[in-house]
Design a protein that fits this description.
- This protein is mostly helical and 625 residues long.
- It is built from 26 helices and no strands.
- It has helices spanning 4-39, 41-77, 81-108, 110-117, 121-134, 138-153, 158-180, 190-214, 222-226, 230-264, 266-282, 284-302, 306-342, 348-381, 386-410, 415-422, 428-437, 448-462, 469-476, 480-486, 490-505, 518-535, 542-548, 553-576, 591-608, 614-624.
- The longest helix has 37 residues, at 41-77.
- The chain is elongated.
- The termini are far apart.
Length: 625
């Protein structure tokens, strides 16, 4: 374990590139806001409200990136590069599907989306144009976000930083060109901002692909994009789904708040757009350390250093808290500068709102830093994304959301007070802070693959009777509660383990001839049985089969399913073997019947531990050929 001084250096090394990326992203938003301010307040409001839809999309990907980051960091910590690339391919496949769905919705129904957020005809018209163009960036955004989250999780932080710098330059140049009509091009206004974003996203993907082709570390491989891995998919869904739900619920709540502000008036929308930009400036360092927590915690867990991961999580929480206080000071320091800059670009009412909004953001800023570190860093990095999902859902939809609605439409409070009520969702900071005083990670992530591998190893060493929830937990260096997150009972764990043993024994052979020649197939099956007996002593014994009959219904079903695959495979081979005499099989004596005979002989050989196939092969030759 690193001492506190060395740990601070290590954490800063990880956090600084993330800060740089956050800074670049903030600068892009600043550039958009400033340049649109020269166009009109309506253009600024339209872009801000239209981006609420994009914000939901981004939060969905942030949750997916969390699942990608946690799994990749853990497998990288184990030194398993191949599985990291499989996870990347899986995540990119899912991201493409989601991107296409969001593209279709925003491209075909931009006006309907804008009407959710405002009733101003001018803002709706401008925002609809913006949405229709920016929808083309979604596919590119999804790919780059997932790819760069995977790289950050394994400590490759230079490419994301370079990519965001290039993206910033491209975005600012394109925005200026299309907004102001530089180089003889027409002035496109708010549509030009969307077009600049699309071009910037394309540049990000090109950089990622070029890096992938030349990288010796982790690469995006087409074969893994289409590869099927049920266990990895289940792990990804288990970790990513609560994070996705958490972030999407949070984004929907923020979009609902934006819709309330939008229906109050453009002054509120414009002031809030600038206030959010100011908060993002102050939050750069805070979010950098908070997001670095995910990488640190996940990698330590991947190395089976649970106590170290827990201690590092506590240290990162302290660092984030201190940095958040500094961020508050930065926000208050730049407040006069921001107000002076926008005084001739916004209405007097909007400037009044902005001054108050900036002050209000400081009191909730520390809470946001703590939340990000705990929910996105410690809990998600430790495999528990559900806690944040529950807390955000309760406080945003059962507290802040209804109260804001009542304040705006029932009690009709002044706009500033509506904004104050909107910030009450950060009451959840107190609950999260209390959690931080106890165990930062009460659920430590592993994966089904790791659990099943540990279970198979226990069978190999001590027989199937050695497999239990506690023994597997000890083997994985996690708590028993972690195993129960994946398997509800010992019987379910045993059933899954036995199925995985059969899958290891009967892997898909590289020689396709096995599926076209009966004698070759039978010889291969006997070889695999012999391998299984050597690899897992006693697994095929009568005692093991007896275990399957002792009420272990789940295990029995799984074994029968595997046996069914073998039986069906034998039947297919009998149909594919063109050397078999044409008069052997008919309606009275089918391929399936002969396959059942062969399968019975195979089981007898397994029970007797007789792995010589000569007698069965002789029977096949005399019967079929």
């Amino acid at each position: 374990m690193l001492n506190k001084k060395d740990f601070l250096k290590y954490a800063s090394t990880l956090a600084f590139p993330i800060m740089l990326q956050n800074l670049i992203g903030t600068l892009v938003n600043i550039a958009d806001t400033v340049m649109l301010g020269y166009v009109s307040q309506t253009a600024m409001s339209a872009s801000s409200l239209a981006n609420q839809y994009t914000f939901i999309f981004f939060c969905l990907y942030y949750g997916m990136a969390t699942g990608t980051s946690v799994l990749c960091a853990q497998y990288w910590g184990k030194g398993d590069k191949k599985t990291v690339e499989k996870i990347l391919g899986l995540a990119e496949r899912i991201s493409l599907i989601i991107s296409l769905i969001f593209f279709v919705i925003s491209f075909t129904m931009p006006t309907a989306i804008m009407k959710i957020f405002t009733n101003s005809p001018e803002t709706i018209a401008a925002g609809s144009e913006y949405l229709k163009v920016i929808s083309f960036s979604f596919v590119f955004m999804g790919f780059s976000q997932i790819f760069m989250s995977a790289l950050r999780s394994i400590g490759k932080i230079m490419l994301p930083s370079v990519t965001y710098i290039v993206s910033l330059c491209v975005n600012v140049l394109c925005n200026a060109t299309f907004i102001f009509g530089l180089f003889g091009l027409p002035k496109l206004g708010v549509t030009g901002v969307a077009l600049g974003t699309v071009i910037a996203r394309i540049s990000e993907v090109l950089i990622c692909l070029i890096y992938s082709l030349r990288s010796s570390d982790v690469r995006f491989r087409i074969k893994y994009f289409f590869a099927k891995s049920d266990i990895l998919l289940q792990d990804f869904i288990k970790i990513a789904t609560p994070a996705v739900i958490n972030d999407v619920v949070w984004s929907f709540a923020n979009s609902a708040f934006a819709a309330i502000l939008g229906h109050i008036g453009d002054d509120m929308v414009a002031a809030n757009a600038v206030a959010v930009m100011v908060v993002n400036i102050g939050a750069i360092a805070c979010r950098g350390f908070a997001n670095a927590t995910t990488i640190i915690v996940s990698q330590e867990l991947g190395k089976d250093r649970i106590d170290t991961a827990r201690e590092y999580g506590k240290r990162m929480l302290t660092i984030t808290f201190i940095v958040s206080l500094i961020g508050c000071a930065v926000i208050l320091a730049i407040r006069p500068v921001i107000l002076d800059f926008y005084r001739d670009k916004l209405t007097e009412t909007a400037i009044y709102y902005l001054g108050i909004f900036i002050i209000m953001t400081t009191w909730r800023f520390v809470g946001e830093g703590v939340n990000t570190c705990l929910i996105c860093g410690c809990f998600r990095g430790g495999g528990d994304a559900r806690f944040g999902m529950i807390v955000d859902t309760i406080f945003m939809w059962l507290v802040a959301g209804p109260l804001t609605f009542l304040a705006a439409y029932v009690f009709k409070l002044p706009p500033v007070w509506v904004y104050f009520v909107m910030t009450l969702d950060d009451m959840k900071n107190k609950r999260n802070a209390m959690m931080s005083k106890g165990e930062i990670m009460n659920r430590l992530a592993t994966s089904k693959e790791d659990i099943l591998a540990a279970s198979r190893e226990l069978i190999r060493e001590n027989g199937w009777a050695a497999v239990s929830i506690r023994s597997v937990a000890a083997k994985c260096s996690v708590s028993a509660g972690t195993i129960y997150n994946y398997y509800e009972s010992k019987a379910e764990l045993l059933g899954a383990t036995i199925e995985s043993v059969w899958q290891e024994i009967f892997f898909h052979p590289e020689d396709e001839q096995v599926f076209h020649d009966v004698t070759t197939c039978i010889s291969w099956i006997y070889e695999r049985f012999q391998y299984g007996n050597k690899r897992f002593p006693g697994f095929f014994s009568l005692h093991s089969f007896g275990f399957m009959k002792e009420g272990k219904d789940d295990g029995k079903k799984r074994m029968m399913r595997t046996w069914g695959h073998i039986l069906n495979g034998l039947c297919e081979v009998l149909k594919n073997d063109h050397k078999i005499r044409p008069d052997v099989f008919d309606e009275n004596f089918t391929e399936m019947q002969f396959a059942e005979i062969l399968f019975s002989l195979l089981l007898v050989s397994v029970i007797r531990e007789d792995y010589d196939p000569s007698s069965v092969l002789m029977l096949i030759n005399k019967t079929l050929y």
